[in-house]
């Protein structure tokens, strides 16, 4: 069922897995093909084992939080001006020290007022999430970037850049080319 939904998404883009040229557009098609593969593997897991994949730790409710974790959640809500705390933080709440450290680091890196505006920061986070293949982060930071004003055209261009960078990075690695002297940062 899940893989069928991915095929429908691909078909909307005029793409079908297994058809010549289906995934030739860098970035967009690579991301869609990856999504198809993830959903297909989940469908196989459900079919063969009868279970949906799930988190490796409990996602804690507000009522289950320790005092330290509750304080971090309060800060997340205040900084974001939103009562919603997503599942990533709920999973980390099982280890309040890791929750606190991760939130403090993320808050410092993603804070407004730096050289990069918040939309650009979210788009960079999204690009790295795509490159790392983190489905959760791809969805979370796509939503965040859209919330900060990323347009569909910007999203499409970002996907094209990520796909092209992945392709040329693999080629230069395969060819074993050393960086040009002119490009070396000193």
Could you explain how this protein is built, in words?
By secondary structure, the chain is mainly alpha-helical. It has 3 domains: 1-54; 56-111, AhpD-like (Up-down Bundle), CATH 1.20.1290; 117-176, AhpD-like (Up-down Bundle), CATH 1.20.1290. It has helices at residues 2-12, 28-49, 67-80, 87-92, 96-110, 118-132, 135-147, 152-175. The model is unreliable at 1-29 (pLDDT under 50).
How do the helices and strands line up, and which of them pair or pack?
Blueprint: H1 2-12, H2 28-49, H3 67-80, H4 87-92, H5 96-110, H6 118-132, H7 135-147, H8 152-175
Helix pairs in contact: 1-2, 2-8, 3-5, 6-7, 6-8
Index terms:
0% strand; AhpD-like; 8 helices; 3 domains; 186 residues; mainly alpha
Radius of gyration: 20 Å
Mean pLDDT: 83
CATH topology tier name of the largest domain: AhpD-like
Structural class: mainly alpha
Largest sheet: none
Series of H and E elements: HHHHHHHH
Number of strands: 0
Estimated helix fraction: 55-70%
Relative strand content:
under 5%
Would you identify the regions where 5 or more consecutive residues have pLDDT less than 50? 1-29
CATH class group of the largest domain: Mainly Alpha
CATH homologous superfamily of the largest domain - what is it? AhpD-like
- The separation of the N and C termini measures 53 Å
Q: Oligomerization state of this entry? A: single chain
